[in-house]
Amino acid sequence: MSHPTYDQLAALPAYAEQPVPIAFEDVNGHLNVRHYTGIASEGLDEALVPLGIPQNWPAHGHACFSAEHHVTYVAELRTGDRMSTRVRLLGRSERAAHALVYLLDETHQQLSCVMEEIFLHIDMNTRRTAPWPEDVAAALDGRIAEDAALPWAPETKGCLSLR
User: Fold this and answer.
1) Which of 61, 72, 121, 158 has the fewest C-beta atoms under 10 angstroms from its C-beta?
2) pTM score > 0.90 for this model?
3) Are 17 and 84 in contact (CB under 8 A)?
4) Which whole number is the average pLDDT over 99-126?
């Protein structure tokens, strides 16, 4: 199995669009490894807003916490390159969801990084996992079904799964 093409990914909604800032550069002259996860996470957060998970969700007693990540680096991003994220939701359980977040190098029209993630719904009063609210669960299910209908298969590493 191989990664989807740039064109396949570019057809998905874009999130966290920005140039690679100088402040994110490392001694090798490219995006420092610690920022790939942060930018991918920012893109996932943006992708969840239309599903009923606003960025101020904790103020309403809910949150999403990351549980596990697997990051695959495909091609470097250099300072000034334009980048964006694309999200494919794979599934959910009563309290968790599974996603692939693709970081694209828009300047060179190529895939730069893939972050596979399991994230959890948290009740902020108890700071424990809790079932997804019904409206959010329905929206997640709808997006998961849409993404399952994409004409390309998702590549997972098999080390992350919903429980």
Assistant:
1) 158
2) yes
3) yes
4) 98
Domains defined for the chain, CATH in brackets: 6-148 (3.10.129.10)
For residues 102 and 88, the answer to whether their CB atoms sit within 8 Å is yes
Maximal CA-CA distance, the chain: 47
Distance of alpha carbon 63 from alpha carbon 49, whole angstroms:
12
Of the pLDDT bands very low, low, confident and very high (cuts 50, 70, 90), residue 1 is low
CA distance to 54, 60, 89, 94, per residue, from 84 (Å): 20, 29, 17, 30
Residue 28 dihedral angles phi and psi, to the nearest 5°: -90, 0
Give 154's contacts (C-beta < 8 A, 6+ positions apart): 4, 88, 90, 100
CB-side exposure of 41: number of CA atoms within 13 Å?
15
Token pair 């874009």 in the structure block, residue: 14
pLDDT tens across 34-85, in order? 999 999 999 999 999 999 999 999 999 999 999 999 999 999 999 999 999 9
Q: Which amino acid is at 71?
A: V
**What tokens were used for 56?**
């101020």
Amino acid at 115: M
Q: Give the mean pLDDT of the chain.
A: 95
Q: What is the DSSP letter of 109?
A: T
